[in-house]
Design a protein that fits this description.
Helix content: 40-55%
Structural class: alpha+beta
Largest sheet: 5 strands, antiparallel
Number of domains: 3
Order of helices and strands: HHHHEEEEEEEHEEEH
Number of strands: 10
Strand content: 15-25%
Shape: rod-shaped
Number of helices: 6
CATH architecture of the largest domain: Orthogonal Bundle
CATH class of the largest domain: Mainly Alpha
Distance between the termini: 141 Å
Oligomer: single chain
Amino acid sequence: MAPVEQWQNTIVTFFITYGFRVVGALIILAVGALIARWLGGLTDKWLKQHLEPPIRILMVRVVRLIVFGLAVVLALDKFGVQIAPLIAGIGVAGVGIGLAAQGVLGNVIAGLTIIFTKPFRVGKYIEMVGVNGQVTNIELFSTTLLHSDNSRVVIPNRKIVGEILHNCGNIRQLNLSVGIAYNSDVKGALATVHEILNANARVLKDPQPVVGIEALAASAITIGILPWVAVPDHGPAQLEIYEAIIKQFRARGIEIPFPQREVRLLQKASA
């Protein structure tokens, strides 16, 4: 029975010595969790009007993690763990991790820059660093674009900040053209194009489409057609307008010439 009594005495001594510390540490952790949840809720309400949902959720989690981390440090202090060396060790480890992950930290800083300066928002169509698409997600590390072929382009945020950015917003301008023969009725062709654009439901009325003679090519008069459409309608509108142009031009006798060249052979008169 001696070993059993020895274990019992050890357990009783442990609870007498550390019981209140354990209870105190648990209370600190519980209070820390409640405070972290409360501050997270306040942060979520404050950021709801400023940031997109994914970024807002991430920031709320960071706030909760920091508050709960402080509670853990205070709980460890109850057990006699020296806080100052612990914080110093965390700081040294943080410096080492920062040096090893400069690219990741660069993306985070760039992500915060995008969040607070707001050069673009979710839903806008942008062009930059050789890619383009509609912004679907902005995170701390990367920004996701939806390309016109429904593929997704993920760009590290440090590749965005400091680069030239073309923000089209919610609309895009089509750059279309069609050639007509030199002997065609130019005024009638321009009027036909205007009718086609007015009849197309995808073409925006404001801003008004721009239609005019773009160039005098070798085989045709080129008519430039520059209407605005919503971002999702960019591809379908282009197909519909070209189809309507061919149909209406053929019905009205407006010729769309193919490239041609006139060659003349000159024969020298015999002496």
